[in-house]
Design goal:
alpha/beta; Threonyl-tRNA Synthetase, Chain A, domain 2; Rossmann fold; 14 helices; 18 strands; 19% strand
Length: 521
C-alpha cells in the first residue's frame, strides 16, 4: 500500500497506512519544510534513488556507490566508470536525471514483513537477510532502485528539481540545496585536505572488506569481528605515529600543537594519546585547558533566546590566552587561571607554568584551528590537527551512515554512563551542538596541517547492545522519537560485537566505559 504523502512542493509530511502521522514535525500532523534538517534528508533520500535509476538506465552494467559528504554534496563512486570520463558521464547522467524528474516516477515506501523481506533476491536481499524480525523491514523504492529507509522520502521524482552533478577525479559529486538559501545550491568549495583524508579512509575500508553493514556482518560471523577490530586498531595507531613523526620533524619551530574537532570526535582521548606517544619519542608535553579562559559569566555573550552562548569564541578571553601562549613559547613563566564553573568567575594568576626546551604545548578545544583564539601568536609557531569521526561504513550502497549520526550514537552512550542523561535528552540537545560546529569548527578544518579520523568501522556493532535499551526508552510522543526509531530500525540489521574484543587503548573506549580516560589520568 505504501504511504500517503501530504503537503506540497515546499513542505513534507507523511502518513502511514495505519493512519498515524509519521512523527516528522514538532507536533502531530505538522508538515516539514525542506530547508529543515529532517526536510533536507527527505529530499536527499529521493535524489539518491533518482540518480541510481539514472545510472541503471544510462549505464546498465555500472553500479553507483554513495560515499562521503563534502561541500553540501555526496561523493559518489561508480563501478565501471573509467578515470578521465567523469565530465562526459556527468553530462549523460544529468540528461537522464532531468528526464526522471520530468516523468514524476513514484517513489514507494515498502514496509515488508520479515518473511517477505527474506524472499527478496539479488542485492536487494543483502541487508534484509540480517533483519531480526522485531520490526518490519523498510525500504524506499523507485522502480528497481532500493535503499534502506532511514526515514521517508518524497512521493515522486517531480519534487527533485534542484541538484547538480559535478565531475571529480574517479568520482562524481551529487550536490543539493542547503538550508540557508533553499532552493539555491551554494557555490562549490574545494576541500583538498578533507578529500585526501576521505581517499585514505576509502582505501583502508576497501582493504578491510567492510564497505556495508552486510559486509561487516559477514566478517563478524566469521570470527566475532576480531580481525576487523584489530586491523582498525593498528591502522589508527599508524596514523597517530605519522602525526608524531611529522611533529618531531617540525620541532622546535612548531611546538604549539592546536587540536580541534566536533563533539564526540575523541579530542580529549586523542590529545592524551598523542602526549603519551610524544613522550615515548623522548619529548615532554604540557597541556593548557582553554576552558579556564572563559570570561566571567557576567561578560558571556548570549543567544537570541537569552541563554548563554558558551561555544562562541567571544565567550573566551582570547587576549589573555594569546598572551600566555606567546610568553610560554618565548620561555617565560606565566600563571594560568582557573575558571570556577560553580560561581561563573575566572580566578587569575593561579598555576605557574614554564615551557621547557624539549616540550610541546598541547591545546585542545573547539576553536583550536581558529587563529583568533591566539592573537599575537605567529601562525608559523603552530601545528594544527583536525580530528573528526569520518564514518566509512555504509548501510547499503545508496545509504551512507552520516558522520553526525556516528558521533550522536557515541554521545548517547557516553552521556548515559558518565552524565546520567537519557537518550531523549541527548537527541534533543544535538541540533544545538550541530549549529555550534557549523559556525565554530567546520569553517576552519582546511587550515589543519594534518587530519585524524577517529571513526572505526566496527563502532555500530559494538555500540548496539548499549544503544538499544537506551533508545527504546524514548517517548513516542517526543520530538526525539523519529531519530530513536530510525536508529533502532538500523540496529535491527546489525550483528553485535562484544566490547571485550575492543582493545583497551582504542579511542572507542572513551565512549563505552571510559577505560582509556582512566588509564590516561
Amino acid at each position: 500500500m505504501g504511504a500517503e504523502y501530504l503537503g506540497n512542493r515546499t513542505s513534507i509530511a507523511v502518513k502511514e497506512e495505519s493512519g498515524l502521522t509519521f512523527p516528522l514535525g514538532h507536533s502531530k500532523g505538522e508538515a516539514i519544510p525542506p530547508w529543515t534538517s529532517q526536510g533536507r534528508e527527505v529530499y536527499r533520500r529521493g535524489l539518491i534513488l533518482a540518480l541510481d535509476l539514472a545510472v541503471k538506465r544510462a549505464y546498465p552494467d555500472w553500479k553507483l556507490w554513495v560515499e562521503h559528504s563534502i561541500s553540501l554534496g555526496y561523493r559518489c563512486r561508480i563501478e565501471g566508470m573509467k578515470v578521465g570520463s567523469e565530465v562526459d558521464v556527468c553530462a549523460v547522467l544529468s540528461t537522464e536525471l532531468r528526464k526522471i524528474v520530468e516523468n514524476a516516477i513514484p517513489i514507494h515506501f515498502r514496509k515488508l514483513p520479515s518473511k517477505e523481506a527474506l524472499d527478496l533476491v539479488g542485492e536487494h536481499s543483502l541487508l534484509p537477510r540480517w533483519h531480526t524480525g522485531k520490526e518490519f523491514y523498510r525500504a524506499n523504492v523507485v522502480e528497481d532502485s532500493w535503499a534502506f529507509a532511514m526515514g521517508p522520502t518524497v512521493p515522486d521524482t517531480s519534487w527533485l528539481t534542484e541538484w547538480e552533478l559535478r565531475p571529480g577525479k574517479g568520482s562524481i559529486y551529487l550536490r543539493f540545496p542547503g538550508s540557508r538559501a533553499w532552493p539555491e545550491i551554494v557555490p562549490w568549495v574545494d576541500s583538498p585536505a578533507l578529500a585526501r583524508e576521505l581517499d585514505l579512509e576509502e582505501k583502508h575500508i576497501s582493504r578491510m572488506r567492510v564497505h556495508t553493514v552486510d559486509m561487516m556482518n559477514r566478517r563478524i560471523r566469521e570470527d566475532a569481528g576480531l580481525e576487523a577490530v584489530m586491523m582498525s586498531h593498528f591502522y589508527q595507531n599508524r596514523r597517530i605515529l605519522q602525526i608524531v613523526s611529522r611533529l618531531g620533524d617540525e620541532f622546535p619551530a612548531k611546538r604549539i600543537v592546536m587540536i580541534a574537532g566536533p563533539s564526540c570526535s575523541g579530542k580529549t582521548t586523542f590529545t592524551r594519546m598523542l602526549s603519551t606517544y610524544l613522550r615515548a619519542e623522548g619529548f615532554s608535553t604540557r597541556m593548557i585547558s582553554v576552558d579556564n579562559y572563559f570570561r566571567n559569566r557576567s561578560e558571556t555573550p548570549k543567544n537570541k533566546d537569552g541563554s548563554f552562548d558558551f561555544e562562541c569564541i567571544g565567550a573566551l578571553n582570547t587576549e589573555l590566552f594569546g598572551d600566555h601562549v606567546k610568553k610560554l613559547v618565548d620561555g617565560e613563566t606565566v600563571k594560568l587561571p582557573v575558571f570556577n564553573f560553580h560561581t561563573g568567575v575566572r580566578e587569575d594568576d593561579v598555576t605557574p607554568m614554564t615551557l621547557g626546551k624539549n616540550e610541546f604545548l598541547l591545546i585542545e578545544g573547539i576553536h583550536g584551528l581558529n587563529d583568533s583564539l591566539t592573537p599575537g601568536v605567529s601562525v608559523s609557531d603552530k601545528f594544527k590537527i583536525y580530528i573528526s569521526a569520518l564514518t566509512t561504513l555504509n548501510i547499503d550502497r545508496l545509504t551512507r551512515m552520516s558522520t553526525s549520526d556516528g558521533r550522536l550514537l557515541r554521545r548517547i552512550v557516553r552521556d548515559s554512563f558518565r552524565r546520567g542523561y537519557s537518550a531523549q535528552d541527548t537527541i534533543l540537545g544535538w541540533p544545538s551542538v550541530r549549529r555550534g560546529e557549523r559556525k565554530n569548527i567546520f569553517p576552519f578544518q582546511e587550515q589543519a596541517d594534518m587530519m585524524f579520523n577517529s571513526a572505526l568501522p566496527y563502532e555500530l556493532p559494538v555500540l548496539k547492545p548499549y544503544l538499544v535499551p537506551l533508545l527504546e526508552e524514548v517517548d513516542e510522543g517526543s520530538e526525539a522519537f523519529i531519530d530513536a526509531d530510525r536508529i533502532l530500525r538500523l540496529l535491527d540489521c546489525v550483528e553485535p560485537i562484544s566490547e571485550s574484543v575492543v582493545p583497551r587503548l582504542s579511542i572507542l573506549r572513551e565512549f563505552i566505559d571510559g577505560l582509556l580516560l582512566d588509564w590516561s589520568e
